[in-house]
Amino acid sequence: xxxxxxxxxxxxxxxxxxxxxxxxxxxxxxxxxxxxxxxxxxxxxxxxxxxxxxxxxxxxxxxxxxxxxxxxxxxxxxxxxxxxxxxxxxxxxxxxxxxxxxxxxxxxxxxxxxxxxxxxxxxxxxxxxxxxxxxxxxxxxxxxxxxxxxxxxxxxxxxxxxxxxxxxxxxxxxxxxxxxxxxxxxxxxxxxxxxxxxxxxxxxxxxxxxxxxxxxxxxxxxxxxxxxxxxxxxxxxxxxxxxxxxxxxxxxxxxxxxxxxxxxxxxxxxxxxxxxxxxxxxxxxxxxxxxxxxxxxxxxxxxxxxxxxxxxxxxxxxxxxxxxxxxxxxxxxxxxxxxxxxxxxxxxxxxxxxxxxxxxxxxxxxxxxxxxxxxxxxxxxxxxxxxxxxxxxxxxxxxxxxxxxxxxxxxxxxxxxxxxxxxxxxxxxxxxxxxxxxxxxxxxxxxxxxxxxxxxxxxxxxxxxxxxxxxxxxxxxxxxxxxxxxxxxxxxxxxxxxxxxxxxxxxxxx
Length: 510
Ligand SMILES: Nc1ncnc2c1ncn2[C@@H]1O[C@H](COP(=O)(O)OP(=O)(O)OP(=O)(O)O)[C@@H](O)[C@H]1O
Ligand SMILES: [Mg+2]
What we know:
Elements: E1 6-16, E2 19-30, E3 34-39, H1 45-52, E4 60-65, E5 68-70, H2 75-80, E6 83-86, H3 98-102, H4 115-130, H5 147-160, E7 165-169, H6 177-192, E8 196-200, H7 204-210, E9 213-218, E10 221-227, H8 233-241, E11 258-265, E12 274-279, E13 283-288, H9 294-301, E14 311-314, E15 317-319, H10 324-329, E16 332-335, H11 339-342, H12 350-355, E17 363-364, E18 367-368, H13 370-384, H14 400-413, E19 418-422, H15 430-445, E20 449-453, H16 457-463, E21 466-471, E22 474-480, H17 489-497
Parallel strand pairs: 3-8, 3-9, 6-7, 7-8, 13-20, 13-21, 16-19, 19-20
Antiparallel strand pairs: 1-2, 1-4, 4-5, 9-10, 11-12, 11-14, 14-15, 17-18, 21-22
Helix pairs in contact: 13-14
The structure holds adenosine-5'-triphosphate and magnesium ion (MG).
């Protein structure tokens, strides 16, 4: 690629209704460079991404590709100019196979393929997936996959076209550390080949590790940039929020007696049953590589799936959950991994979504009181600093991190005293992440019980009293995270990857 290869957002302004989402923004990436695009939730990152990929035409400004200015009208146009993208939310065809999805934006749609071409398609898909070290059958239907696998398929689809510029909008939010480092490796190779990469992320460790430059948007304005030699977690955080950011310390209080216990949960045919317990006033993390069974434990505890034989005890009384509703009625609030599929109703208002777990309490004589719903939503807006114009706004129009906060608001308003949360701060900016952490710690301090899973090991280290490590459907370690020798980040990574530990090494026995 020539030295003049650049992708530039030039003087971009865009409004949604009356609200100014981007205000004369300039941003560029050169071939062979990784440019991180940072900013708080709602700062305008995804809007800028959609403009650069033709999914949204701005009110004014141009997209300049290798020196030529364009007003992009549709995604196809951007694709033809060599711009590839992986959007923040999922854009897959659930009823199609993995390979068909990977090839879905290729110029030759798979349906027109002959038998040998299909075989090729499967082989190429397999190869691409293997580069991330995941064994997904290219013939499997996408609906059967978990969030991380889906994200990797979207990344493979973008890579298939060998784009000159690749824009990744929070690609690692759904990935665990091992997949994340694979992805960062792939991005590094792309850079070496001359591809210009725009990486949108809230994970500042990633930025420090791989980016050449970082630029932050603040309220739709370009707030400035740093180059690699200036990177530190503090300098990046400062760039994003415009002020000093405090270092987190973790929970200081002492947990109480067992409140929630999952037992006799057999995840694989031949695996030892899983047993996990969490006390009142306690925060417990479950971690593990993809396929280790973490999501099964979480979904079982939330009543989202029925695991045959599994017992769930709440306050010492044993239950076999048949539904989410049953878990809810026992005071369990759940934040699922994919809030868009099993958590929020995207087209309904923020107010409606806030009251969703408990519509009866907002009703009189069978009619839902919109005023009560709105009041509740206004309260959670205050509490969680949800950035929105009106609680009547559909959840769809909120930024990703703010959608997550609506979920927390729901359970807070509902008076749940047990929270079962997958990826508490997925897609949430550092400011909001700290608010969520402070909320969870104070929720526990006041008697609440928190069971959470997270692929973000820093989050695990600052939140959890205890950490369950899973491998191949079993709990292989239980780590105490309160004393002097709290596990390091490396120790946690090691514990998840180490297959030899199965059945041998329990550090804390219950
Ligand atoms: N379709 C839409 N209709 C109305 N407002 C929108 C729409 N899409 C985005 N917005 C608003 O534009 C602003 C920027 O949103 P955007 O999604 O670009 O933020 P972001 O920086 O990507 O945030 P996050 O980190 O949470 O993903 C927000 O105030 C958001 O509510
Ligand atoms: Mg976004």
